[in-house]
Amino acid sequence: MYDERELSADVRERLAITRELATKFSERAAGYDETGAFPHENIRDLQAVGYVAWTVPREYGGLEISLSEMLMHQEQLARGDGSTALAIGWHVGMILNLRSTGAFPDELFAAVCETVVQDGALINSCASEPATGSPSRGGKPETTAVPVDGGYRIRGRKTFSTLSPALTWIVVTATVAGEDVVGQFLVRGEDVEIVETWNVLGMRATGSHDIVLHDVFVPSNHVVSIARPGAKTERNQDGGGWLLHIPACYLGVGLAARDFAMRYAATYQPNSLPHPIADVAHVEQKLGEMELKLLAARTLLYDLAARWDRSDPVDRPRLRAQFGAAKTLATNAANEVVDLAMRVVGGRSLSKSLPLERYYRDVRAGLHNPPMDDAVYRMLAKEGTAPYRQPNRS
Predict the structure, then answer these.
(1) Does domain 238-387 have CATH number 1.20.140.10?
(2) Which parts of the chain are beta strand (E)?
(3) Using one digit for the tens of pLDDT, what is the confidence trace for 78-123?
């Protein structure tokens, strides 16, 4: 949790910008959800106010905002439209990750940042594939990179490529032909084919289509890393704090549902009651449950973000399991909050004329964003039992 009164004037001013954008996005959200079209208008609005450069380092012309502040904005944007917030979150989060880890060669990162600041360019990493599933599970890419003079030629197909219709830069993982190593390569968005496969239950407007690489040439200076499958790359060396943009987004959707239910309960008075339904005991309990779930999840989220911001970079990986816990707590809480909100509103909540059924579908997607619940529980269990385990005597 954060108290807006305690924020600096600059941060409050930027929050006013994202709050205004969220209001615009909320007016368009139903249309984009209905058609599944990518929200180009929303992205242009974010580019127009410079939001896409807020996490860029100051030395490259950005604002270099903190992780904590980035989460505030992501949560706020998601209160307007979850799809837009989740999509742009991968861009601003990835820039923050690259800033904190130095995973890109300096010249390459500087060149990317220049396009972000000057042109509103967008970047994301596309690693998932049909046969390997989530890259967090350690699958070896079937996409291949063949060494040629001056670089590599890459062929393959990626799934869940969020923000794909607007990407200028794409970090692609590929197995290097003839070697037991996996590379990360920076590809231009204009060099890939977008196959519009994204037609799903929730978060329908994220543009998470398939991308196909048809013998794409990548020069040697666009090679980010080469490592053995499963090895940790430099991008993994900050504990994954940037991935908190995911729970922030789903909490934003949960907050939107909370707001709707609170307003409805405080103003709806059926002719069978002498007061609004907010004063009915079982409704009051549901409203209280919603507040508690959001309070717990948001408190953990912002506490961890603040710890990441003030930590020495070498200590940040120790927070990885806790970041996973924040994601699991937040996404499950968001699902529970939206469910409670719909119970408060009743049968009307199912109507397409109200936003609750969209919130209900959108928060379901959070359960399938990394890290998955089972992986988080496993990490927490291993950390918890580590002090009690006997050393291996074999």
Answers:
(1) yes
(2) 123-126, 144-148, 151-161, 169-176, 182-188, 193-195, 209-219, 223-227
(3) 999 999 999 999 999 999 999 999 999 999 999 999 999 999 999 9
